[in-house]
Amino acid sequence: MATTNNNTPAHASHAYLFKNGYGMIVKTFEFPSNNKTNGQCIELMDPPSNPTHGTFWIQSLSNKTSITSVRTKKTRKIVDKECFSVEDLVEANVGEKVEILISDDARQTKEWITGKIKSVKRFQQSSGDEDTNGALQGHHSVSSRPPTSNYHSSHNQSGSLVLFETVDNGLLGLTLASIKLIRGATLKTTYPHRVFKNCLSIDYKNDSGSNDTGLMKYLTYGITWAPSYNLVLLNSNDPSIKRLRLSSKAVILNDIENMTVDNLFCIVGFPNISKFASVIDPIISGDDVKTFLNSLKQSEATSGTGQSHIMLNSVMSQPAYTSQIPQHLFAPQMPTNISIPDDTLQDVNVDDLHLYEFKNILLQKKERLMLPIFDIEIPYKDVYHCKINLLQSAYIQLGSSEKKTFEEVWHSVEFENITNFVLTTAPIVITKGEQEQQFIGQDTLTYTSKGLTAFVNLTKALDVQIQAEENVLSTNPKRFKIGRTSFQTDNIEGKISIVNRKTETIVVVINVALSGKITKHSVEPKKDVIKTHQHFTNEQHDIRWEVTVKPKQTLDITYDKIYNKYV
Question: Where do the segments described as Disordered lie (predicted)?
Fold first, then answer.
């Protein structure tokens, strides 16, 4: 006989949530010990509805238990159903002392009587060998019917017998239709109802003499977390002391099932789950062979296309400049079966998964839950931040008479991530004053490892102007080839002009993406990350300059570079 475990579906020992709508759920249950030579069976009710193909596993956590097979089946279960009619209330209160209002339509009389409902015997058309009694005397009936409001015909109601025991008149036999009202001090409003439920039937053997722990795990779509940040610029009487309050929270979105989670982890990272993400594990899906194989083919066809819901969990850094590079700046195309590494995630280790941990969390289906992550005060400094993309300037070659445009400059706060957490990419709201909460703006806080610097934009800096240009000084007439493509080498001079129209000294941080080999610069960069690749004809630089500019001053940053251009 099967042992039914009703608690397993509602309890998870661990849950790991990604930001792209997927979560790994880990549940535990018990394998009772037995000495039967042919093993034993345990049933787990309400298995997950959409586990990802290949991620659904049931195992024992020790070698005491050996699993023979796992199969899906339907099993009968008694559940409580709400009453929707007087007939339902009568049946739900078998064995209870109540008052009922009975009517005699022929005599047009009504009467309240007090007593105990002994049983309800439903009218059924059945063969002689079927048990037509809905309930034994003095016991509750177990119904497998829908609620009375959409089930009973008048014939069935009049043919259903209610045995009602009174103090004065003894045992009465009443038709169910004659009972118009029912009342009582402890009236029950639910009744037991037999239903068929999905379950997993596990055949196993455990003759160790002690119970063993089983494990069920699966990746599923429909549960995720959404992070966000709150930044408050704190007031200070000392202008040299600048501090901010940074808070973080996670909102849990659960659309799959009710469960209590012992250890809930919100993950920052880039999961490799795109291969079979759209395919439900066949033991749960119930798909026929053709449908299952077609879903596999469709998954394989789309796994390399960068599905948006898979990529949402990417731990992004600064916006990628390389996506804007025209194809002719690359070396000739290699055969299509060669994989080119993705260099857009500079300074981000995509192999790491960072965890935010929460203990003893109750998750209700369709409920939204907010969990605080941290709340900390951090010193900061005001900077004026500008991002410049010069990857295209060398081949555009604007004439010297053409007017150069001003770059976008933001008044920003710069602070070090001194929290115990990696900061993930998420929206951040900025206000000023602990009490005033003056709204400043909203920005996106980008992925920041512990100990590294983060920037948050406040407002556009109209009094700080930055222009960037590159001019060709000379061109080597000698051509060279890479594959079948011809190139020439330009000697280029670059200049970034910073104009401070403010009445105070400012710190300007400039992030520049440019292409070519830098041979000289007037200001030493604070950072210069060089990217080279066999498919690049030029080095690519991610440079950060940090300079102090006095009031009403113009400061120029110059550099020389060698650039191989396509001809």
Answer: 123-155
Using CA atoms, how far residue 46 sits from 80, 204, 257, 364, 558, in Å, is 16, 19, 10, 15, 68
Query: Does residue 278 or residue 513 have the better pLDDT?
Result: 513
Cross-strand pairs, 409: 386
> Which residue carries 């063969």 as its tokens?
127
Pull the structure tokens for residue 537: 């004809």
Q: Give the pairing type, strands 179-183 and 170-175.
A: unpaired
Residue 98, C-beta contacts closer than 8 angstroms, at least 6 positions apart? 114, 115, 116, 117, 182, 183, 184, 187
Confidence of residue 115 (pLDDT cuts 50, 70, 90): very high
Tokens at 245, concatenated: 């309050």
- Torsion sign over Cα 202, 206, 211, 217: negative
CB 545 within 8 A of CB 514: no
Confidence of residue 409 (pLDDT cuts 50, 70, 90): very high
470, exposed or middle or buried, with CB in 10 Å at 0-12, 13-18, 19+?
buried
In this structure, what token pair is assigned to residue 546? 């940090």
pTM above 0.85, yes or no: no
Q: CA angle, 310 as apex, 304 and 314 as ends, to 5°? A: 105
Extract the tokens encoding 22: 């997927």
Q: Which two tokens stand for residue 407?
A: 């770059």
Domain edges within the chain: 1-78+195-221+256-315+350-365, 84-188, 381-429+442-566
> What percent of the chain has pLDDT above 70?
80
CA–CA dist 235, 256 (Å, integer): 45
pLDDT digits (tens, 9 = 90+) for 424-473: 999 999 999 999 999 999 999 999 999 999 999 999 999 999 999 999 99
Pairwise CA distance, residues 349 & 76, whole Å: 50
Helices assigned H by DSSP within 153-288 = 154-158, 282-285
150-182 confidence digits (pLDDT tens): 444 444 455 689 999 998 888 999 999 899 999
Beta strands (DSSP E) in 421-532 are: 426-432, 438-445, 453-460, 464-482, 485-500, 506-515, 517-521, 527-531
- Is pLDDT above 60 for 310? no
Tell how many helices (H) and how many strands (E) occur in the chain.
6, 29
Q: How far is CA 417 from the centre of its chain?
A: 24
Nearest to 23 by CA among 50, 5, 57: 50
